[in-house]
């Protein structure tokens, strides 16, 4: 931010008080007018004496206050845009503040003139109204600059001095001391006594100057504190912005399902948060001998190529960072930091911070931010970047652990399925007679072997699918999918399966259904599991109906109804438990892993959908899914 | 020139390779085998096959894809039809292009995915279809 802009913002913050006090001043003046008139009324009531000059003066005050009110209403539209310190139109607001200042000076000058006249009409320097100048000095001290406060103080004293001179000089007092003349007993000497007059005036001078001094000192001290508060609030604001950005960064990194995506987010966001031109993550190779760029932001291709692989033994800086040191370099050119400083100069890097990416005591690599300006990092920047580096390292480690887990599961599934597939393939060769004809009993046995192995294969496949789904990492990025298209692709496959089992299968798919947030694979798995279940537990000659319609509550509704064996009521609660198969299901068919409905439930949870089941033993079952 | 169609089966599972050899030889295909991508490439260099049946995961998780990619970048080998055998044909077909980004941007090298365990009849149907299409394409391009 420009320093000038900051200064204007700061000044505006303090001018706010002036602008807020102006209508208060107008209200206060109404009170003075009301009390003034009431006082004149009381004087007439108790002493049958009406101070006419005072009444005229009060009427004048009343009139100019009306005028001020009118001007204030004209000015107030600027108020809303003029005082907000965070608004951007600071230039216009600075002009508005000037208008408010002139307005305040006009009001205070007129008030002081009115007060001087009131003092003059009410007996001069010795008038009790003379004390009221003190209030004006206080008011000026609060609202205006200290210099203005002293200036008004001096003006008032000059005016009162002139009055004193008029009273004591050749001119006799124009107006008598009302309170001594009318309200209090008259002593006859006060006005004539020069000495008393001078002493009273001197006391007033002292009182006015002391008041001006106290008020301005207090105000300056308050203003200093206010500035400090403003600075603190700004620092807090900045910290808050940084922390919010850091939170967003961690959130974005947490959603990444690939290391490269995660690190690209980290470098891009870190450069943004730190306000620098570039950022990079270099990771250590498995032998911990070389550092390679894993992600960069804002660095040129040439620079990345020139530092593609850094041998740690040949790079003392990187070696120290790997050992845990923090490198914050304010001026690249100041010392002989780098082996090839010209590369860094060409890249436009003037200062940088490099930190180890560390998870507990293990070092993953080096995290750097590069600035185009020299000495652009403060101690707090380094601390904040260290926090960012720790969080990034944790996220990288977390994702790697999850990816390793998935890799292990996939590898384990592959290793388990490979021999199974080889055996099944060999059995198929036997069964199809590639190695000569088999007798009926041999063929039956081979068929049974094949079925059991296929079940084992399905089990491995389902377990893999379920395990990957249950890792914290969610590999499926949801997008808008047309469910009818997915179901239509599957319908052909299920129609041929149903034909083989002599089951009648009907698909009713409504046109113009809304798209749902899912992936083709998730919907495919969901539909496949539900429909193959219905086909599996429906005896030959039965019927399966699949309806895909618009749901009343929005989204889509899938209803799979069969005329199969049905589900016993006591098994409803355990239907979505792992490896659970109802007794009648086990009796009906040996195939079935007990994981199909668990997968269905987990897919629906992921898609924020719901499922309900209704069934009657021997009559069939209906599964209804709702997808938003 | 021999009229026997030469099929190269590349898979690290020897039992599966033998099963495929039995199936293919029953239809008078000439069968050569290799047990990893490197061996497979050497056999291709020795003699260009009419078709390759390739496993995805062999010496490395992407050995099959790496070989397919390598072949598609060489003028003399780029037209060899490739059938990829995998336990996850749907997943491979859908995600292969995303997972193996080094292949993306080029033409997708795989002619067909076939699911393991291999059904002999399915395999033969697919092979015959691809070989016929390939022959027609070659004839058209030579005309």
Query: Main β-sheet of chain B: number of strands, strand sense, barrel status?
Result: 5 strands, parallel
Q: Which strand-content bin applies to the residues of chain B?
A: 15-25%
Mean pLDDT across the residues of chain A is: 81
In CATH, what is the class of chain B? Alpha Beta
Outline type of chain A: elongated
Question: What number is the mean pLDDT of chain B?
Answer: 81
**Strand adjacency order, main sheet of chain B:** 2-1-3-4-5
Question: Strand percentage of chain A, roughly?
Answer: 5-15%
State the domain count of chain B. 1
- Biggest interface pair, residues each? A-B, 23 and 20 residues
Report the strand count of chain A. Answer: 13
Under the CATH scheme, the architecture of chain B is 3-Layer(aba) Sandwich
Query: How do the strands line up in the largest sheet of chain A?
Result: 3-2-1-6-5-4
Label the overall shape of chain B. Answer: globular
Helix content of chain A: 55-70%
Provide keyphrases for this structure:
A: 628 residues; alpha+beta; Beta-Lactamase; Heat Shock Protein 90; six-stranded antiparallel sheet; five-stranded mixed sheet; 17 helices; 13 strands; elongated; B: 143 residues; alpha/beta; Rossmann fold; five-stranded parallel sheet; 5 helices; 47% helix
Describe it for me?
The complex is a heterodimer of chains A (628) and B (143). By secondary structure, chain A is of the alpha+beta class. Chain A has helices at residues 3-47, 52-82, 90-121, 132-143, 146-168, 178-183, 194-254, 259-274, 301-306, 316-322, 341-346, 379-431, 440-470, 483-500, 520-536, 583-588, 596-606; strands at residues 278-284, 290-297, 309-311, 327-329, 351-359, 362-371, 479-481, 504-509, 516-518, 543-550, 556-562, 610-616, 620-627. In chain A, β12 and β13 form a beta hairpin. Chain A folds into three domains: 3-235, no CATH class; 255-403, GAF domain (Beta-Lactamase, 2-Layer Sandwich), CATH 3.30.450; 479-627, 2-Layer Sandwich (Heat Shock Protein 90), CATH 3.30.565.10. In chain A, α2 (52-82) runs antiparallel to α3, α4 packs parallel to α7 (194-254) and α14 packs parallel to α15 (520-536). Chain A contains 17 helices and 13 strands. The radius of gyration of chain A is 45 Å and the shape is elongated. With 143 residues, chain B is an alpha/beta fold. Chain B has one domain: 3-Layer(aba) Sandwich (Rossmann fold), CATH 3.40.50. Chain B is built from five helices and five strands; from the N terminus they run βαβαβαβαβα. Chain B has helices at 14-26, 37-46, 63-72, 89-99, 120-142, and strands at 6-10, 30-34, 51-55, 82-86, 112-115. In chain B, α2 packs parallel to α3 (63-72). The chains are: A alpha+beta (628), B alpha/beta (143).
